[in-house]
Amino acid sequence: MVAKKMGPRFVKQAVADWLDFAFPRSCVCCGDLLLPSEMELCWVCYAKLPFSVHGYGIQNPVAKSLWGRVPVMGGYYLLNYQSRTMTSNVLKSLKYDGGLIMAKRMGELMGEELLLDPMYSRCDALIPVPMHPKKELKRGYNPALVIAQGLSESLGIPVIERVLVKQNTTVSQTKKNRLERWYQTQHVFGLNGLLTGVGHVALVDDVFTTGATAERCLRSLYAGGLEKASVISLAFTV
Ligand SMILES: [Zn+2]
User: Fold this and answer.
1) Scanning 45, 59, 156, 173, which has its CA 20 to 30 A from the CA of 120?
2) How far is the CA of 44 from the centre of ligand 1 (A)?
């Protein structure tokens, strides 16, 4: 009798099971051990995440925050954010080990949602909000870029990397008030190339708070020839 040959899928699952046994993983929200099929977040916590009920469009709170400041076609976010909530645990997890997998998965999830929206068929490319190169080197990756890559896989839309550049800020921002910090962000995003002929892009970030970062990024992109823009964020401060 000839034994059945083990397929690559079986081997991959066996390796994953062994890794989970040898190096148990914990849910980033509740700390419970994860099953091999769970990625960074257990299914119970996933079901309890504060998902946004807003669709993608000009009435989305992300887009509304930018009304009168910079032209946008629409906005979208996945999770409501408040400090010390499950969303803050998810955002914190993006900064540590395993954050890369979480960022990618969250991007894919948003992409699966956005596939349902015809507005998205008008989008030509995704542009992540850049991180300062030194900070990115220290962290190992830019969460906004990895979220954009997850979106890209679900939507089939390309990511344009390194066109926006975060430049040096010479003054510490910790002792500045909100207005001074906003003014400072006016000067930290540069453009590395032109976007002439690029129609509609979506700017991608991990968290949207005052909109100052998105506003400055979009102003730079429009100055480089971009025609239309939208904003996608993993979380939105409510
Ligand atoms: Zn959990």
Assistant:
1) 45
2) 6
Contact between residue 189 and residue 223 where contact means Cβ atoms under 8 Å apart: no
For residue 38, the CA-to-ligand 1 centroid distance in Å is 10
Q: How far is the CA of 197 from the centre of ligand 1 (A)?
A: 45
Give the global pTM. Answer: 0.83
- In the chain, where the domains are located: 7-48, 49-237
- Give the distance (Å) from ligand 1 centre to CA of residue 115: 27
Q: What is the C-alpha to C-alpha distance for residues 132 and 167, in angstroms, rounded to an integer?
A: 7
Fold of the domain spanning 49-237: Rossmann fold (3.40.50)
In which region does residue 126 sit, left (phi positive, over 0), alpha (psi from -120 to 50) or beta (all else)?
beta
Question: What is the Å distance from ligand 1's center to 131 Cα?
Answer: 29
State which residues have CB under 5 angstroms from ligand 1, the bound ion. 27, 29-30, 42, 45
Per-residue pLDDT of the chain (238 residues; tens, 9 = 90+): 445 556 666 666 666 666 666 678 888 888 899 888 887 889 999 999 999 999 888 999 999 999 999 999 999 999 999 888 889 988 888 887 668 888 999 999 999 999 888 777 668 999 999 998 888 888 889 999 999 999 999 999 999 998 898 886 655 555 566 666 655 555 588 888 888 888 899 999 999 999 999 999 999 999 999 999 999 999 999 8
Nearest C-alpha neighbor of 231 from the set 61, 108, 94, 82: 61
Helix axes 99-114, 86-93, angle to 10 degrees: 120
